[in-house]
Design goal:
Layout lengths: L4 H15 L1 H7 L9 E2 L11 H19 L7 E4 L4 H11 L4 H7 L1 H11 L4 H11 L4 E7 L3 H16 L3 E11 L4 E2 L2 H4 L3 E15 L5 E7 L10 E4 L4 E7 L2 E6 L3 H5 L4 E7 H4 L4 E2 L12 E4 L12 E3 L5 H10 L29 H10 L3 E12 L9 E10 L5 H9 L2 E3 L2 H4 L1 H7 L4 E2 L1 E2 L10 E3 L5 E2 L4 H7 L19 E3 L5 E4 L3 E2 L1 H6 L1 H4 L8 H6 L5 E5 L6 H12 L7 E5 L2 E2 L16 H8 L1 H10 L7 E2 L2 H29 L13 H22 L3 H28 L5 H21 L4 H12 L18 H24 L7 E8 L10 H8 L1 E5 L8 E7 L1 H8 L3 H8 L4 H10 L1 E5 L5 E5 L3 E7 L3 E5 L3 E6 L4 H22 L8 E6 L2 H9 L1 H7 L2 E6 L6 E5 L2 E8 L1
Parallel strand pairs: 1-25, 2-3, 7-10, 8-13, 17-26, 25-26, 27-28, 29-30, 37-38
Antiparallel strand pairs: 4-5, 4-16, 6-7, 6-12, 6-15, 8-14, 9-10, 9-11, 16-18, 19-24, 20-21, 20-23, 22-23, 29-36, 31-34, 32-33, 35-36, 37-40, 39-40
Length: about 1000
């Protein structure tokens, strides 16, 4: 049994390890131009999935290709070790329900558990990375939890603080009640889900009236107990409508939609006239000094709702700002866990998002519900724990990224995005709407925000280094001071006013950690300045499309804030891996592919090739085990078989390309060398443009040409005894084709290409240069001619398949009819005859001898032109004879005199041409040729076909006996007299097609019988 791809790949990995091949590939390029690659840091507290396989494959592909193209490509691995994903995993392990239980457990003990957790699956990640063939330096990675990394992050934050762009503010922010912390806008953008919620239109009774109500619409009924105001647009027109004894105030434009056709309007007024109106809210939980009145707000529209907006200041940015500007009371009736406070008596302690239905029921019970409805919308959920977010007014720390908006946009314009629409589309639009970065997190495990505040005068300081921290600290700090909570929380400074400065309690957004990696990975600016400058900006960053508002944004934002420059020149934004039905993969659905299992079954090369060649990497791709399996059989196995063929005959003949002189190339050799150089040029052009899919498909097509055309057409040359000039040329040609093809394939399929190249050339393919095309060896006309030959052969084979005529059955004649201007095939008639098993090839034939043509009216095209005459025209062209049909087709148009004395002109586009073969023939038509096969099988042709089937049986028997391919044998055959007579007459033919020293006819004891065309043929082979 042949070894599996996985076993072969393990052997190649062992050689790479022993030879330090990865290290050599970098050191060999020392002094060469640098191609800068950044590794986006994964978190090692979860297992890798199919999306990681695509990302790591694409990264490795680009790095290998650029290395072989002459660049030095440093590849430093990284681990993302902070943040809520880690905390949530540890909480789950410890069964802790929220921040209070973490504090009770002990922050220090919790932090230590987080440290342990982040590398839970590091071994699995390393094994996966190595098995996939992803070359990245995992022995010296950057790690975001280590002091040098944190110190660099502090330096960046200190710079931002010194530039007055880091501030403390109170505002409405997206908030996760489960994680009990706020999020940044780019985090929110990653977690939207389509949900069905309940909306309500509530009645707010106008003070001093018994039956007049403001109608306020809300998509968040849970915020109604916190109502402080109703907002109207002062410039909009409103109406009072009487209905069923009550009067409702709504926007004029929405009156009919809300209150039916021809509503009873009793008054019309401007929004400005409503400002200052006081009302009784639907619920009386709150006692306000100033509130429950109508305010003016320009953001109110009449495109939906009622034109009057319910305002709860703690739960909406517009609400918060409008209430503050109007001087009304600020209230918040929701605690840090997203539950109602005691003020909301009947609902106190309940999670607010669960109370929408109860709120609507309470409105109905109080007579304050006007209407309710379910509606579908996209609602933000926490990207880490999947809980629905709340908008929540709270104090926090913000980076004033809005000040940098123009620079962010300008820097993005310099970036080459793949796909290109991302620059001004998804990413560009996000930058257009950028808000200040909510940087603080009220959590435990993360880079502590390095801001100390004076409790007496509110002065702030942001140390830029451990040295500055040590210098300012009131305490003596250990040499290996721990830059994490709770250790840094106990460090105090003495303010110049004499007060004590304490560190603010927050840790920072984990995305700021990863966005700082261009600098922090080298502990810049404290060391490695020259290396950092050499490695900034990146030539490429590569991650999934979900990182558009994650790592891609944080990299750009941090770099723009810190240096004013873009951190990368190019972004490759990869699509999602979907299952074969187009569904998102997930463990819960049971449709997730395990990349490690795919590697074990099919090999990493097959997985990598399938991921890169199936569709453009930036497209969402339907992917399945079948995709990988087909790649293995069609591409990787083809290369392995081509190498095996070459190796077998090279070993038999002792061929060494370094010592055996070149031979005399045939036209077939010239063709395959021309194709090789054309393919090299095409692949290089594709890969330089990052079109890896086109490059992979070009190579796969060429592999098929090598295997199913060049080698198949050259087999007899390798079988020949001795080492003449023709055989030497075949060996040298195939050696060059295989070695250069493996170089082309190396970035795609690093294992098999290296195995083959190493076997043939004696060194690693990954230490060689990517092949360059030799234009002097490209013969365009020869390629066109051979392509034409292959077209003719394939069309002929398709006829045989359709008519169940085996290729081994010889036929009398094949006629080739050019459809377009054709190549000169005269020199290739012998090849066509061999490949199609046809005795005579007739070129430039006239199809009229073999095919009848009939034209029919193309009604969708001709009908509108001909009008009422369409029936007469159809009747007339149905009577066309062969001559008249051909005249029309040659001229491309024809004038017809109809029976009603009308004259019309028809053109080719007005008709459909139907072709039918004449008796005894079958045809197939391609873009360039129509081929006609004579399907009549004479007695002589039938007998020769029979002999070919016997030859096939002999070859099968030889393989079963495991005979060397070059071994000549004595063949004994026993069959009926009729069969024996046929075989004797074709004896020379058989000897030309099978390696036979002697052929005899007799019956022996050790014969094996085969069924050949219904006849029993028994064979014996003497070795």
């Amino acid at each position: 049994m042949s070894e599996t791809a996985n076993v072969r790949e393990q052997r190649v990995r062992k050689r790479w390890e022993n030879d330090n091949t990865f290290k050599q590939s970098i050191e060999k390029r020392e002094g060469k131009e640098t191609y800068v690659f950044y590794e986006g840091p994964p978190t090692a507290n979860g297992m890798p999935h199919a999306g990681h396989a695509l990302g790591r494959t694409m990264k490795d592909f680009v790095a290998r290709y650029k290395t072989m193209s002459g660049y030095q490509v440093l590849r430093k691995a990284g681990w993302d070790t902070h943040g809520l994903p880690v905390e949530l995993e540890v909480q789950k392990q410890l069964d802790l329900k929220g921040k209070d239980e973490i504090k009770a457990y002990g922050v220090e003990a919790f932090i230590e558990k987080c440290k342990e957790s982040v590398f839970t699956y590091e071994r699995e990640w390393r094994q996966f990375t190595e098995a996939l063939g992803y070359w990245v330096d995992m022995d010296d990675p950057y790690v975001t939890l280590q002091n040098p990394y944190i110190e660099s992050v502090w330096n960046i934050l200190s710079t931002i603080h010194r530039n007055d762009m880091l501030y403390k503010g109170h505002r409405v922010v997206p908030y996760c009640p489960n994680c009990e912390t706020s999020l940044s806008s780019h985090e929110v953008a990653q977690g939207y889900k389509d949900v069905t919620d309940l909306s309500a239109t509530a009645k707010f009774r106008i003070d001093g009236t018994e039956n007049e109500y403001l109608l306020g619409w809300t998509t968040t009924p849970w915020t109604l107990p916190a109502n402080v105001a109703i907002a109207v647009n002062p410039e909009m027109t409103y109406v009072k409508v009487e209905q069923d004894g009550e009067v409702y105030v709504v926007a004029e434009a929405l009156a009919e939609k809300l209150l039916g056709e021809s509503p009873n309007v009793v008054a019309t007024l401007q929004g400005s006239e409503l400002v200052g109106t006081t009302y009784s809210p639907p619920f009386d939980f709150l006692t306000l000094n100033r509130g429950h009145e109508v305010i003016g707000a320009s953001f109110v529209t009449d495109s939906s709702g009622t034109g009057l907006v319910h305002m709860a200041p703690a739960h909406g940015d517009d609400d918060y700002n409008a209430i503050r500007e109007s001087g009304l009371d600020f209230v918040n009736v929701v605690d840090s866990k997203g539950r109602y406070t005691d003020e909301i008596g009947p609902l106190a302690g309940r999670f607010v998002k669960d109370c929408d239905v109860d709120i609507v029921k309470m409105l109905a019970h109080n007579g304050r519900l006007f209407s309710k409805e379910k509606y579908e919308h996209s609602y933000p959920h926490c990207w880490r724990c999947d809980s629905p977010l709340l908008y929540y007014a709270m104090e926090g720390w913000f980076i004033e990224t809005t000040k940098m908006k123009d620079q962010l946009i300008a820097n993005n314009q310099e970036v080459d995005w793949h796909p290109s629409h991302m620059r001004d589309g998804r990413f560009g639009k996000f930058l257009e709407n950028v808000v200040d970065w909510n940087i603080g997190r009220n959590r435990f495990w993360g880079t502590p925000l390095n801001v100390w505040e004076c409790e007496a005068c509110d002065k702030q300081e942001a140390p830029a280094s451990i040295a500055e921290l040590r210098e300012r600290a009131d305490q003596d700090l250990a040499e290996d001071v721990e830059l994490h909570k709770p250790y840094v929380d106990g460090i105090t400074f003495t303010c110049e006013c004499g007060g004590t400065m304490h560190r603010t309690s927050e840790v920072i957004d984990v995305w700021f950690d990863s966005g700082s990696m261009p600098f922090a990975q080298y502990h810049y600016p404290f060391e490695n300045e020259e290396l950092m400058n050499k490695q900034f900006p990146a030539d490429v960053v590569i991650e999934g499309v979900d990182q558009t508002r994650g790592w891609f944004y944080s990299l750009l934002a941090v770099s723009t804030l810190f240096t004013g420059k873009a951190p990368y020149k190019r972004v490759l934004s990869l699509g999602h891996i979907l299952d074969e039905n187009g569904q998102k993969m997930s463990k819960s659905k049971g449709n997730a592919l395990n990349p490690v299992e795919l590697i074990e079954e099919f090999g990493a090369d097959s997985l990598r090739w399938a991921l890169l060649a199936d569709s453009a990497p930036w497209n969402n791709k339907r992917f399945s085990k079948k995709t990988v399996s087909q790649t293995k059989s069609k591409v990787l196995d083809t290369l392995a078989n081509v190498h095996s063929f070459y190796k077998m005959y090279a070993d038999i003949d002792g061929f060494d390309p370094n010592t055996v002189e070149s031979g005399t190339q045939t036209k077939l050799d010239e063709w395959v060398i021309s194709r090789l150089n054309t393919v090299i040029a095409e692949v290089t052009q594709s890969l330089d443009a990052y079109d890896v899919t086109k490059g992979a498909r070009t190579i796969a097509s060429f592999l098929d040409e090598i295997s199913n055309w060049y080698i198949r057409r050259s087999r007899a040359r390798f079988w020949a005894s001795g080492m003449d000039a023709d055989k030497r040329a075949a060996f040298h040609t195939l050696y060059e084709v295989i070695t250069k093809t493996t170089q082309l394939m190396a970035p795609f399929a690093p294992f098999l290409s290296d195995e083959v190249y190493y076997d043939l050339a004696g060194n690693s393919v990954h230490l060689t240069n990517y092949p360059t095309a030799d234009s002097t060896k490209v013969n365009v006309s020869l390629e066109e001619e051979m392509d034409a030959v292959r077209q003719v052969v394939e069309l002929t084979r398709s006829i045989r398949n359709q008519t169940s005529l085996k290729t081994k059955q010889p036929l009398a004649q094949l006629a080739v009819v050019p459809v377009k201007q054709s190549a000169d095939l005269e020199a290739y008639k012998g090849i066509i005859a061999e490949e199609t098993n046809v005795k005579a090839i007739l070129l430039d034939a006239n199809q009229d001898q073999y095919v009848s043509q009939q034209v029919k009216l193309n009604f969708p095209v001709a009908g509108p032109k001909l009008g009422k005459s369409v029936g007469l025209v159809q009747k007339m062209i149905a009577q066309f004879g062969d001559t008249q049909t051909q005249q029309f087709l040659d001229a491309g148009k024809m004038v017809l005199n109809l029976d009603n004395d009308q004259v019309v002109e028809i053109e080719k586009e007005d008709v459909l041409v139907e072709k039918n073969p004449l008796p005894g023939f079958e045809f197939a038509e391609g873009d360039d040729y129509l081929v006609v096969l004579d399907t009549n099988v004479t007695k002589e042709l039938k007998e020769e076909g029979f002999v070919r089937e016997v030859i096939r049986a002999v070859q099968v028997y030889r393989k079963e006996l495991d005979l060397p391919v070059e071994k000549r044998v004595h063949l004994t055959i026993h069959a009926s007299e009729q069969v024996q007579d046929i075989l004797q007459r074709f004896e020379s033919f058989m000897k030309n097609h099978v390696l036979i020293d002697q052929l005899s006819f007799a019956k022996t004891d050790d014969m094996k019988s085969f069924d050949v065309e219904g006849e029993t043929v028994s064979l014996s082979i003497e070795k």
